[in-house]
Amino acid sequence: MRLLKSVVLSVAACCLVQVSAVTTLRADQKTGTLDIYFIDVEGGAANLIVTPEGESLLIDSGYPDNQGRDLNRIIAVAGEVAGLKRIDHAMVSHWHLDHFGNHAALAAKFGVGTFWDRGIPDSLSEDPGFPDRIAAYRAASQNQSKALQAGQLVPLKSGKTPLSLKVLCASREAVVGEGPENTFAARHQPQPDDPTDNSASIAVLLRFGEFRYVTCGDLTWNMEAKLVTPRNPAGRIDLFMVTHHGLAVSNNPALVLALDPVAAVMCNGPKKGGAESTLKTLREVQSMQQWFQLHRNVDLDGSLQAPAEFIANSVPTADCQGQWVLARVAPDGASYTIQIGSDGKPHSFRTRSEH
Question: What is the pLDDT of residues 54-66, one digit of tens each?
Fold first, then answer.
């Protein structure tokens, strides 16, 4: 009888631990945390932010098609992991299909409140099919999407710990005259101008107390320099989403070294992004403690990449389970953890007090 009671108690304790491991990943007003999910959309982008007030913002939505792979992964994280009933705000960083491909489908299958973008162009030179692709987005947003400009604040609710989301650049215009002088400005070596919509990407700075997070969509080399030269409006930050999947046409050292992030997450694919030059730049960052990758770059030597425990997915696309990465910021904004999936080890970081 004692043995049976002991077994029952042990099973109950185990179940409690398992439930706790899942429920602690849900952000709500009780926990007061700020949660930032990096969802694996195989070399596209889908960045879900859930505030302490329970308000949600999805930046980009991955590729359409692929039997609904990216759409289903986003819905799974938003609904099953984050406990959301809908997406309150959906933002498009720029008009490439791997970034806005599922906005319309998300609105239909999960629900979207307000749509944000940089303004909708009539055409896109690099995508002859853009007029047809954008029709679904226009319909889903009922032609009521809101265009963002550099310097604008996205209206998110702020609670006990102050929270704000500021647009640093959009449509090739950047915030100027703000922040400290960029001592790494000389590292910018101009490249040929980029006429694609990548260079028009929206970049944002999220502040939560002292915590600072920057994501720049697919912003490219010369625009990255324009954003942080001669002054860096973001200052030194805590967390950085490595730009443009870690491709070499982005991640200008003048930007990355000036931001000086403590941690970073790279939303690359098995064969897209994670370039050697970008990884070398990350290694130069003075304050960098660790970066995470959504994928192992199957074409690059493992010694150049993040250690295996910091890579969410290490197999080719055909066998990939789409593991996500979560950065969770404490209610006072003074510390944060980053982990891979529900069962991953939380890696702890202190928020820097000087920016």
Answer: 999 999 999 998 8
265, part of any domain: yes
* Rg (alpha carbons) of the chain, rounded to whole number: 20
What predicted TM-score, i.e. pTM, was given to this entire model?
A: 0.91
> Is omega for the bond preceding 230 within 30 degrees of 0, making it cis?
yes
Residue 41 and residue 47: Cα distance in Å, rounded? 10
End-to-end, the C-alpha distance of the chain in Å comes to 61
CA distances from 81 to 35, 174, 184 (A): 11, 35, 40
Q: Which stretches of the chain score pLDDT less than 50?
A: 1-24, 27-29
Residue 253 lies in a domain: yes
The residue whose two tokens read 């050292």 is 253
Question: Domain containing 271 — which CATH number?
Answer: 3.60.15.10
Residue 355 lies in a domain: no
| DSSP letter, residue 243 | G
Task: Name the token pair of 198.
Answer: 């990548």
DSSP 81: I
Phi, psi of 339 (to 5 degrees): -140, 160
The pLDDT of residue 26 is: 52
For residue 145, is it within any domain?
yes
* 3-class state of residue 319 by DSSP: helix
DSSP, collapsed to helix, strand or coil, labels residue 107 as helix
Tell me which residue has tokens 């959301």: 84
DSSP helix/strand/coil, 350: strand
- Total domains in the fold of the chain: 1
Q: State which residues form the domain around 128.
A: 2-350
Q: What is the pLDDT of residue 339?
A: 98
Query: Exposed, middle or buried by CB within 10 Å (0-12, 13-18, 19+), for 114?
Result: middle
* Cβ–Cβ under 8 Å, residues 229 and 182: yes
The pLDDT of residue 29 is 43
Contact call for residues 112 and 86 (beta carbons, < 8 A): yes
CA distances from 154 to 158, 166, 294, 326, 335 (A): 11, 6, 27, 22, 24
pLDDT at 354: 75
